[in-house]
Amino acid sequence: MNHTTSKVILFSFTDYPRLVSNLEAQGVKTSQDDLLRHGSFTFDLQGVSRAASHQIVRHRIASFSQQSQRYVKITRSYGYLKPSGIPEDLKVPVEIHGQKMELNFADVMDLTRQAEEGLVAKGIKAEDSRYLRPNAATTNIVMSMSPRQLIHFFNLRCAPDAQWEIRDLAWSMYATVSLVAPQVFGPLPAADESDYVKKRVEIVGDLVRKQAGSFEKTASGELFHLEVSPYLDLLHPVESFVRKY
């Protein structure tokens, strides 16, 4: 089993300049509140832990499609996400049938994988064998939200007391939407109450401005790699992409 690099891909988003232009051509004026209500952003989140996915789907005013673990083929190469706060060489004592041993995080992940594969090999249904899978096992999830709900999501999940993995994902997502819709995603409301959020919003603004030119030159249909590390000092590897229209 391998460590996983998470990916945030902004796959689809409202083209606000075109939307506003088309509405104005029809004599419809749009306010900032209109922009927040009329729009949609779809993310393909890859290599996120089951622990983080459970937090993400709690945001009910959104649409989700998650990779099924019932029918996905299990292999030893399937990834997991290790918290950075757990040292690679840290071992804990365990005892199985009177036999004592010491295991690190990777050992435990590998044992759960072997056990799950072993049950399947003995004829146990995959949907039952998967009960052995840990929260660290990675999954993929597609999420669509309106701008208003995304701002609510960012205010909660970009906060310094948010769980580290979903916080890393949220900041990476915020950077992508700030690139494509700066007129909608300005400074987060939470920045008024948190110096941590305020500083990171400024960092995102700087990195977006520096990479906007390269994004504009990206061919239609291609993925633009938005560099967020090491600027945001994320606690685990996250690669951010935007699909250019």
Give structural notes.
Helix 7 (164-180) packs across helix 8 (195-217). With 245 residues, the protein is α+β, with helices and mostly antiparallel strands. The longest helix is centred in the last third of the chain and has 23 residues, at 195-217. 39% of the residues lie in helices and 20% in strands. It has a domain at 6-70 and 138-243: Alpha-Beta Plaits (2-Layer Sandwich), CATH 3.30.70. Strand 4 and strand 5 (99-103) form a beta hairpin. The protein has a six-stranded mixed β-sheet. Strands 4-5 form a two-stranded antiparallel sheet.
Neighbour order of strands in the largest sheet: 3-6-2-1-8-7
Q: Class of the domain at 6-70 and 138-243, according to the CATH hierarchy?
A: Alpha Beta
The radius of gyration over CA amounts to 21 Å
Tell me the number of helical segments per DSSP (H or I, 4 or more residues long).
Answer: 8
Largest sheet: 6 strands, mixed
The percent of residues in helical segments reads 25-40%
Give the SSE string.
EHHEHEEEHHEHHHEE
What is the CATH third-level topology name of the domain at 6-70 and 138-243?
Answer: Alpha-Beta Plaits
**Overall form:** elongated
Distance between the ends: 36 Å
Total strand count, please? 8
The overall average pLDDT, rounded, is 88
Structural class: alpha+beta
Second CATH tier, the architecture of the domain at 6-70 and 138-243: 2-Layer Sandwich
The share of residues in extended strands comes to 15-25%
Low-pLDDT regions? none
Short description:
Helix content is 39%, strand content 20%. By secondary structure, it is an alpha+beta fold.
